[in-house]
Amino acid sequence: MSEHHLLLCFLFFLSFSQILLSSCFSFSNSTKICPHGQSLALLHLKKSFSIKKSHSRNCKFPSYPKTEHWKEGSDCCSWDGVSCDLVSGHVIELDLSCSWLSGTIHSNSALFRFPHLQRLNLAFNDFSGSSVSAGFGRFSSLTHLNLSESGFSGLISPEISHLSNLVSLDLSRNWDAEFSLLGFDSLVQNLTKLQKLRLRSISISSIFPNSLLNRSSLISLDLSDCGLYGTFPDKDIHLPKLELLSLGGNYDLGGNFPRFSENNSLIYLHLSFTNFNGELPASIGNLKSLQTLSLFECPFSGSIPSSISNLKSLQILLLFDCQFLGSIPASLENLTQITSLILFGNHFSGKIPNVIYNLRNLILLDLSGNNFSGQIPPSIGNLTNLYQLDFSDNQLEGAIPSHVNGFSSLSSVRLGYNLFNGTIPSWLYTLPSLVELDLSHNKFTGHIGEFQFDSLEKIDLSMNELHGSIPTSIFEFVNLSSLKLFSNNLSGVLETSKFEKLINLIDLVLSNNMLSLTMSVHSNSLLPNIQTLDLSHNNISGMFSWNMGKDTLYRLNLSYNSISGFEMKPWKSMQILDLHSNLLQGPLPTPPKSSFFFSVSHNKLSGEISPLICKASSIGVLDLSHNNLGGMLPHCLGNFSKDISVLNLRRNQFHGIIPQTFLKGNSFRTLDFNSNQLEGLVPRSLIICKELEVLNLGNNKINDTFPHWLGALPKLQVLVLRSNQFHGHIGVPKIKSPFMSLRIIDLAHNDFEGDLPEMYLRSLQATMNIDEGNMTGGYMGDNNYQDSVKLTIKGSEIEFVKILNTFTTIDFSSNKFQGVIPECIGNLNSLRGLNLSHNYLTGYIPLSFKNLKILESLDLSSNKLSGRIPQELTSLTFLEVLNLSQNHLIGFIPQGSQFQTFGNDSYYGNPGLCGFPLSNRCTTDEIPYPSQEIEAKFESGFDWKITLMGYGCGLVIGLSLGCLIFVSGKPEWLVWIIDKNIHKIVRNKRSTRGRGARIS
User: Fold this and answer.
1) pTM of the model
2) CA nearest neighbour of 221 among 198, 202, 200
3) N or C: which end of the chain has fewer CB within 10 A?
4) How far apart, in whole angstroms, are the C-alpha atoms of residue 88 and residue 84?
């Protein structure tokens, strides 16, 4: 080519390049400026919001106020969070997430002036009062919409289902937003291009939409905490792109574990807090890409399938609080990537497999709350990356390995509630990152060693057999918030000044040891943040002058010591104050207004109760029992607090009347006025104490008739009226089925008269057919206070410091009751004790007593009972104490079973009785006399059955025998012969009836 042609080509190239560059610069300049209307709309949008950092406090990314630099006159396409179309300049993306925004988005908001939007992200702001309105449905080009965690509420507009181009929709964590009945269905049907659907914590209240499982484009599906219910589809799932499936928190959504085909990409599966159940299928092994499996708080059961070994990418396995059982499969050794293995709260058993200790990437290992046994091997030292180790609440035993190295990151060790023994190994004292150490409720012995690092914040070594003094290193832990060493054998003198450095200590529990205390009055700022201080059951004596936690201490327990008083009262903000069983003297201290629990029982306090006590209007338990308090009770005691449940004034010297006014709607559960000098009437206003379970008025001077109206109290279980001046007939109930819950009733040592109250006895449903196996709870009361009562049981006065929920007894002794013992008592077949002694009862011992199968004590002494002791009472195999003395009983003492254990004292004062154990021998070694019903038929001296006995031998012999008895007045020798034969006949008839019953 000639130079001329080359020159022409070069000039053409330069000219074209210039035109091209000019065109490019022109195009570039034209895209920098967005349309004026959209710029103005963005500025209007900015003005509609306020800015505050806390509005984006939950943002997972760095947050800042993006709109702060939006300025009029500048190109909006260059503003933070704004993106424009390169050709038209229209705003197509608006990302204002984590922008500190607050305000209401109304239907006419400037937000809706951007019809070309393709992406909109308003997540992590505060638009409280805004709804997902119809305006959002006008963004016809929108492909991505994220309104998560921004305070939207109310009904989500169905117009959102018109966004047919949506690929990603995230409305999660707008807790007060909800779909209409058809709105969610429309969304699922219309948004067919969805790849990511996140609606966590949006109220849907629908069955799971099966059509979602046909969307092969789905990558992420989060419908957790949405109120889904029904049964999840039981079919194979073919969603090859699905990486995240989260359905947790839908408590009423159940079904079997989802079955995924082998062709899956699932990385995250969350089914926790649902009703998915059954066993895990072997097909779980198909989830080879799974990294997180979360199935906790579900009723899954059975064992873990060995196919779980296929999940070689698994990093987090959460199977806690389910119903899994059996052993942990050894195939878990293939999960070499696992960092968190949390299986607590199941029924796993056997030894912890050694393969666990080879999972060297483990950071969290929690096997607590199972039934694992055996010992911890030294190979636990392989887990050098451990941050938290929790084997608590199992049946592990033996000594903890003594030589373990390398736990440089271990922060939490929890081995409590096991059977470990031996000394605490030295390596536990040398962990540089240790924050929490819990070895409680084991059998560790020896001294507590000195810790080498001061990182500890929580120490719990309680309920062991440790002895010696508290190590001095503990008092150097500036970050220590909880120290629990109770129920050991620790001893020594604690100087309060040692606690000076523990400025962050919140809980200090050293009870049930042998510690004494030396208090320094000069350290006024000791334990400035203390909330709980429990030094009960120690050797603390003298005046208590430890001035700690003036404004923070809310629970103080100094009970069971020898404290005589307080130099300063450390209970400005106290809620729980327990000072019982000390040597406190002087006047009653007034509880603070904030008190909920106040106990000074078993001391030597004197004087009267000040009416100021009624200013403690929040009090729930007030126990002033076992002191020397006197005077009259303040009238306000019955109505000063709606919250009070326990008022215990037992064993003082109060006189006058019981407060007559009780607050309507009160919470009284226990009222105990026993052993005072109170008089007058039982307050009629007790009828409004609908929660009352225990009423103890025993050992006073109350002069009244039986308070039958108490029978209307639906929860009354214990009624003690003993040793007062109650009088008159108990009579018949005024209401239907009174005292339905009553199971302990003590009316002893009063002046009641007349017949035993049969109609009341028939109504005691709580003493009938108790199913002890199904009874919940062990004792009456709650965690704050457990009821006690003193009763005469088995001939001795016994104080029950706790009252079993199944204990039942009736004591009507030492009154003036007369007449026969009602047969209906035999229906009270859950009675443990029955005392009717020292009355004027007549007639026979009822045969129905044979039904009292768990009766332990029966006292019918000092009455006028006659007849024989029923042989059937030998079936009472629980009977430990029997007292039938001082009656008019006759005949042979039954033999066998418990009756072989009773001595002479059970029968003395009945000259007509004979046989073991009495020295009065019977005239024959034959079997005992028959039961009273049969005997009663001979009392008249003539019975046609005697005549009929001779029927087989001839009519003449029979009539002769009848005449002989009639004339001679029942000769003893003949009655004895007939009596014996009648007994055999009756026994044979019963045997026949018994066989007949068995046949039928």
Assistant:
1) 0.81
2) 198
3) C
4) 8
